[in-house]
Amino acid sequence: MTKRPVVFCVPVCAAAFSLGVLYGVSIDLRLLLLVLAALLVAMAVFLERPRIRTVLVIALAAASAFAYLAVYDLLLVRPVQALNGKTITVSAVLCHDPTVYEDSQRATLRVKAGDMVPRAFKTQCYLPLTEKPLQAGDTIQATVKFYRASDAEGFDRFRFQAADGCFIAASYAKDADQQDGSPAFFAVTGSERDRLLFLPERFAGQCRAAIQQLLPERESSLLTALLLGDKSGLSNRDAIALRKAGLSHLVAVSGLHVGFLVGFCFLLFGRRWGTPLSVLLILFFIPVSGATPSVIRAGIMYCIAAGAFCFKKQADSLNSLFIALAVLLAANPHAIASLGLQLSFLSTLGLILLSGRMQRRLMQGAEKWPRLLRGAFSVLASAVSCTVCATLFTTPVLLSSFGYVSVLSLLSNFLVVGVTGLCFVGGFAACLLFPILPGAAHVAGALIAPFLRYVLFVANSVAMLPFGLIHWGDAFGMASVLLFFTAVLLWTFDTQRVKWRVALPVFCGAICLCTVLGSAYAERHYTVTYLPCGTGQAVLVSRAGSDLALIDCSGSGYRDAAGKVREWMAWHEFDQIDTLVLTAVDLGHARDLPQLLQDTAVGMIVIPAGYKQTKHNTELIKLLDTTQVPVTQVSGQEQVSSRLPLTVFSVADGKLGVQIGTHTLILHSPTQKQLAAFLQENEVHGQTLVLSQSHIEDPDLLRRTIAKTGAESILLASGAPAIGRFDGIPVVTPYEVGEIEQVYPWKEE
Question: How much of the chain is in helix, strand and coil states, percent to nearest 5?
């Protein structure tokens, strides 16, 4: 421990920060100070007892981390959070170029200290649109309202922003006397764009502009993401393909990109001069790429390695990794909640601990091969070991945070990693040449364009392969992943007791059996998925990747239900919607139908009979009358799918209910009076009862509905956050918890 104290202490501190930040474990600061004092005394007593001393040092590290977090929150976080709910006129400077929306723009601000502001701090703030685009370095004055970021739709925005050092959110206050949403007060007071601090942001903006002029839209979007980590220009299709193919790390600037820069410097200047030049280039590149935890981690580790090289020492990779982690967590303990930080450190830890050992195992027996063949196989072995080891360590985070892991990453990374390096170096060179030698920059852009198209081709082709994703709810898929990683670890550590002539067929057979059982299970079950669409609703019913029905398609605000449906279809490998049910012909249930029909194949549309035309649904009715998709009106009760247990029935004129198997009953379209009248004359049953927000506003009606239907749980397909429980029955909504998926057994009639 005395030789590598960082390796022992920093993981313990990180674990303590995780308990405090992620799980809310809090210890009184006075108690922590007493514990620290007791531990220091115990250290002095047992100084000559190495084992006891090691335990005490680890305990001291944990207590110190809890104390540091408590002091950090007391001095830096709570004074800022005390602004929650207050409306104040502040002066601030933009840290980055804002993200522009249709009705506002979002920027990271550095708020200056003032009479009402305890100290300077960062915040994510929504600002009004401006005629002249705002840029990093602009100074503003505005009346803003501070608030704690919400965690709607299963995404904890407060924790996400806190990981970036923003402990309070803000939005410009609107003028109460105006109806157009004008700001109460907003003014651009000056600019600090010429400060050295904002030079990287200016360079990043110039890179974006140069890339857009050098390449077509699709290729320029990929190169912008590759160089700067800015994925906003990627099409939804390409973004999903990169994630499904296990290539999303290519467009999240990380250690891989730092490695590309270092290789570029070494290629031009050699290692002697390339080392100091690469350090300067990386220190400039970190803020250009957004200063994400992953690129900061890589930069710190490389600077340590470069310093060791200059002093003719050997850097310890594990020490360097945990020093980088210590620096990031010392600057902001809440950064432990950053998924980028978690994935970056875990993948690097996997490379350090296992990839070298795995590569040596792969290279066993290749010592006598011809040099050229051995070199080529070494590259292949390196790619395989790095991908497998990084995936092994990051899989738990991917599953818990995103609900899936890609099993295609080994194939896709092997196909594109080398090409990606050429694209990164060529794109960086083109951006540097563009203001000086635009002709040479265009040549560089033309040279890398085919490689960028190749990366997109590989990503989209690999993403189309079946069984490429393992989802958290897929028990058989999870068992396959566990078996595979178990076999990899046993083989990597070369356990002498394992007889691979026997073990390998057993592992392969078990994985194949899990795959077959998983396919059989999927064929005998169907899934009901409720998408988070704000105050709108979209419910998907699917089975075995071949049958799909959609109930309603309406989002609200910036939430596009049609886009969410298409994204879900891409993830689950559906190319069309067989049956689309509109439970009411109005904007509340079909607002995003026009966008859906533009880009998505639909087999049949089912609508209620007796709907009325109003000024709000005229365009929607016109669309239904002119679409090439067959439209069926239902006035009674009808089973609308031969391969899914989907029955629709009339609740009132112009309103439909939906029965999904024997488990789910959807009644969110009728009004309170229509629902009460329907239940008085009809018998319907469902364990899960889907209602609208208005139905829970009448407790008596809700009790009668529960008693009549025998519901055991209530799901609000739209509306405000749920009430938690009603008379002991759970009430949930995707508005609050995000996407909800329920799996039921399929019974053939």
Answer: 55, 20, 30
